[in-house]
Write a structure and sequence with these properties.
This protein is an alpha+beta fold. It contains seven helices and ten strands. The protein has one domain.
């Protein structure tokens, strides 16, 4: 009889411990869920802000008298990418680190935005750390395919050069025939062509999922097979209006 009572007491205690353990597990799961939701919301907000800033950067660059991207370059552009506030630092050799947004021409206009990161090594930067706005113009089918590939290195996998600046590109057509990507930068209000040899461009999975809700291939996005989210309109409007701004400044 005593043995039976002892067994029942042990069983009851084990049951209570199991219940307490389950409560702890459920509390942990709930906390993780809230953290995940909070992170997703924060990442979505940051990506939306990046789209707005990218549009503002392009609009401001094209508004600068005699200092924007030439009309001829924009006319031949297959894709346009902007990295607002690329962080660069160091002296002689410095690290670049930034997140950007891109769109490509389709039969129905400019595609929904895709997202990427850029990291690498550059030469000739001044001392200190500062924000630089970066614009990349992808030319021809080759340049477009580099962007769609979601992983490439400037100067190695894709030919890149500092792009011409001003109302019109020069008569020299090397920028059009021999270069897949033209790069530009704006720092402290000064806009100029920029060489980014060695920089690595990769797909930004976090931003892609934050905007579209799930993983979508870069090719699907840039081929125009995905509708553009409402938060991308300011960026896409700036891309559509860039050539009009270039023509209007002539």
């Amino acid at each position: 009889m005593r043995l039976k009572m002892r067994v029942e007491q042990l069983t009851l205690r084990m049951g209570r411990k199991k219940v307490r353990c389950m409560k702890k597990v459920m509390t942990l799961v709930a906390l993780l869920s809230l953290t995940s939701v909070g992170w997703a919301g924060t990442n979505r907000e940051a990506t939306d802000n990046r789209l707005d800033h990218a549009g503002a950067v392009l609009h401001e660059i094209m508004s600068a008298p005699d200092k924007g991207i030439p009309e001829e370059v924009l006319e031949h552009a297959k894709c346009v990418a902007v990295v607002p506030h690329l962080l660069k630092g160091g002296f002689v050799f410095g690290a670049e680190n930034g997140r950007g947004v891109a769109t490509c021409r389709t039969t129905n206009g400019w595609s929904a935005p895709s997202f990427f990161t850029i990291t690498g090594i550059s030469a000739g930067w001044q001392i200190g750390v500062e924000g630089v706005d970066l614009v990349m113009i992808f030319q021809g089918d080759g340049g477009m395919e580099r962007l769609i590939s979601s992983k490439f290195q400037l100067g190695a996998d894709a030919s890149a050069a500092a792009g011409p600046v001003g109302r019109h590109a020069t008569a020299d057509t090397d920028w059009k025939l021999n270069t897949e990507i033209l790069t530009y930068s704006r720092a402290k209000g000064v806009f100029a062509g920029l060489t980014l040899t060695g920089a690595d461009v990769r797909r930004d999975d976090d931003s892609t999922e934050a905007i579209y809700g799930h993983d979508i291939p870069t090719r699907t996005i840039l081929r125009g097979e995905v509708p553009a989210p409402a938060s991308a309109q300011s960026f896409l409007d700036a891309v559509r209006g860039a050539k009009r701004q270039a023509v209007a400044s002539n």
